[in-house]
């Protein structure tokens, strides 16, 4: 769970909440398996992916602004570390997206 703190609480906590909501909807979908639950899981999964990418873009814009005003050279280690941290939220968003898609595949498969 350290990656949540490293990725920035502003984007990682909402993504974690979205994951919990998707899991709860999946459990609900196993019981009633309605089209509304299926569509809601799909929509939330896609939102999680886009929200994660938004976190990366906002972080990258801030980093580029700081790099442009920095005096002197920026070391490659600092740049690589920044990219690693910046890519945590889109990666988590992609994982949530894939989990949501897997859940919708399962719900489609077990549909009565």
TrEMBL record:
The organism's place on the tree of life at top rank: Bacteria
Cell membrane among keywords: yes
Signal peptide: none
TM ranges: 6-27, 39-63, 83-110
Locations listed in the record: Cell membrane; Membrane
Assigned keywords, A-Z: Cell membrane, Membrane, Protein transport, Transmembrane, Transmembrane helix, Transport
GO cellular component: plasma membrane
Domain MotA/TolQ/ExbB proton channel: 32-96
One BP annotation, GO: protein transport
InterPro entries in alphabetical order: MotA_ExbB_proton_chnl (IPR002898)
Keyword Cell inner membrane: no
Topological relation to the membrane, as annotated: Multi-pass membrane protein
Family stated for the protein in its record: Belongs to the exbB/tolQ family.
UniProt-recorded name of the protein: MotA/TolQ/ExbB proton channel family protein
Source organism of this protein record: Polaribacter marinus
């Amino acid at each position: 769970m350290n990656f949540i703190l490293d990725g920035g609480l502003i984007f990682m906590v909402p993504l974690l909440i979205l994951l919990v909501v998707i899991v709860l909807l999946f459990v609900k979908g196993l019981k009633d398996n309605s089209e509304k639950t299926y569509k809601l899981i799909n929509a939330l999964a896609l939102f999680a992916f886009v929200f994660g990418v938004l976190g990366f873009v906002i972080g990258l814009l801030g980093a580029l602004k700081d790099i442009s005003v920095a005096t002197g050279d920026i070391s490659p280690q600092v740049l690589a570390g920044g990219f690693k941290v910046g890519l945590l939220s889109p990666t988590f968003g992609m994982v949530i997206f894939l989990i949501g898609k897997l859940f919708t595949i399962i719900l489609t498969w077990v549909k009565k």
